Amino acid sequence: MKPFRVAVLGSGAVTNVLYRPALQEVRHEIELVGVADLNRQSAEQLLQEFPSANFFTDYHPMLQELHPDAVIVALPHFLHKPASVDALRMGIHVFCEKPMAISSEECDQTEATARETGGVFCVNLFRRWFPSVQEIKRMTTSGALGALTSFEITDGAPYGWPAMSFSFFDRSISGGGVLMDSGVHALDLLQWWLGPIEVGEFLDDAAPNGVECDCVAELYVGGARGSLRMSRSVQLPNVYRLQFERGWIEWDHDDGTRFRFSSDRQTTVEATVKCEARWASGSRYTLVLAQQLRAFARACRGHSAAGLVLAGEARKSVDIIVRCYNKRKELAIAE
Amino acid sequence: MIPLDNPYASARRDVKYAVLGAGGFVGAALVERLYRAGAQVVPLIRRIGTGSALLARFGLPQRLANVLHPESLKAAFAGNDVVFHCVTGDRAATVQGLENSLSAAQASGVRRFVYLSSAVVYGFRPKSAVDEASRFDPPSWSEYAKNKASAERIIGKWSGGPETVVLRPSIVYGPRSKDWSEAPARQIASGRAYLVDQGCGHMNEIHITHLLDAMLLAAHHPAAANQIYVIQDGFGRTWQDYYRSLCELLGVEFSTLAAFSSQDVARNSSQLVRYQRWAKDAPGVLRSAVWHDPLKAWLKNAPGFESFRRFASAPSARPVTDRSNGQSPAITPDFGIALLHTYPQPLVDAKIRTELGFTPRLSLAQTLEGLGRWYRFMGLVR
What we know:
Chain A is of the alpha/beta class. Chain A has helices spanning 13-25, 44-49, 59-66, 80-89, 104-117, 131-142, 171-174, 178-181, 183-194, 284-300, 311-326, and strands spanning 4-9, 30-36, 54-56, 70-73, 93-96, 121-123, 148-156, 198-204, 214-221, 224-231, 239-244, 248-252, 258-262, 269-272, 309-310, 328-330. Helix content of chain B is 43%, strand content 12%.
């Protein structure tokens, strides 16, 4: 079979930390043909590992010249929409880094373009692929524990992402702070597991032109009230706890294989999902991305897109974030 | 927060400030204070990290500057009136970095340079109450103390501008203080907290709010030029008092904290170097009770280091319970913490109170209220 040809838009930290090893893993099925970034230095390692890939300082000529089957959009957040739309209009499929875009209007435009062009557009909301997360989805969907009564999510640690620029810290570029960055994962999982989410109250610590470092959201799913606390400044418990009428489920943030639950409110079951050992190791991030890229390539060739988070789903977490920001009140922590 | 009536302690809109080390606990809090007061402030950081996330709340352009790269400093200081130096690091960053910063400030026409030093320059066993005139006695084993003392010698001899002001706080606590407010709380919550000699030592703490007030006084007050100030809250707390307050905030019974004696710490120290440190810094009575000097300690255990290890690892503290899983965690008391818990003297901050009118504005209850809010956010208090 002819190799599936992809180009990467952006060679910053996410490309070097996550996509580079994943592309290595799928190199016999997916060929990297091009890399576009303003900064060639940031692409050096990628170009060394994939010598047949061509480098461009602008993605437009790269797409015209190489016309790959698909692109991986790993640019600063504010470019996710324009780059995705540009590629889709050229008949190129898009695998986009999260968030899908930085506003609901941008999500509308991307979703509409994907629909009009018939291109595959999906977003790297990778936690949905963890075996533990999928098992929790099966449990919540089955209704075995009764109706949801409350939930509490904490997700935070001192900021340690090896960012190569200040793009995460500029609202016009990133679209927001910790909520737009990591919160998009947390909210995606919550709404995937539990259903539509309404926003009660939202507090964060950002000044008008800044982006939040810490935040607290009061959320509702049906009649169940819950909270989401996120931080870039301090270690939080990092536990997702869902309370139901007849039991509860707890998932430790980013555990690929394990979670806890109780179906009688008394006995705790330590559950481990039977799966490949790598899901329990540090290489699960490479594994999850490689699996998605394979599924994406298959979907682009006309097969099922099962498991991929397509535009209609991916936008839900962005819509919730926008509603949170619209309700913003000050969170006072220091002094 | 209670407004300050000392005009020199407020940020000024007609002054341009640069904060070196803006990504750290004190630096980031200072930028926040200046920003919220509407002042012009340039946050200077060495690299993108946690500090950048804190600073990003204000939408200020963050600037990369390295104290070991003089050119980056000159460019960063240009046009600023006041430089706050809140940098920590290794010897090069602390000593050479300060000299570079002073030179760059001079070349850039900076008016005043506020240097955040530390009371660690006096060592851990001062013989009498500590004030600005007390003798430096950095212990030979503490790189941090030696570096700070060396840096102070540089700024002490500096001349030709800018005006310099040196502040010597000891324990800086409050929300976002990793070492003195987060770590003890996590230890208490997980059953790993301990006090040495019942935490009878002077804590000599200063709340971050009060330290920022003092830094602004240092930046503005005419009388502060080329002066040095020891500074603390004045609550007169011991470590025991502090841990008791944290236990109340966290809903943990104070009596469940592990207790060690100074002798326990010596016995539990598992490396010879710790005995060497102890021999130099421990009070005389303890020194003779344990070993007289490092050589004697070495001879006692030579040639087999194993026997020393076995002795050192003998259990001596009463068991404590890990509240997270019901098991007893092994606690190894830290030598440096033991020295702090038994710190023998108060810091005397009469000079800054008299000359600059420094008055801590938060009550003890207010400082604890702020910590409680932070702990609730962190999930340590439900």
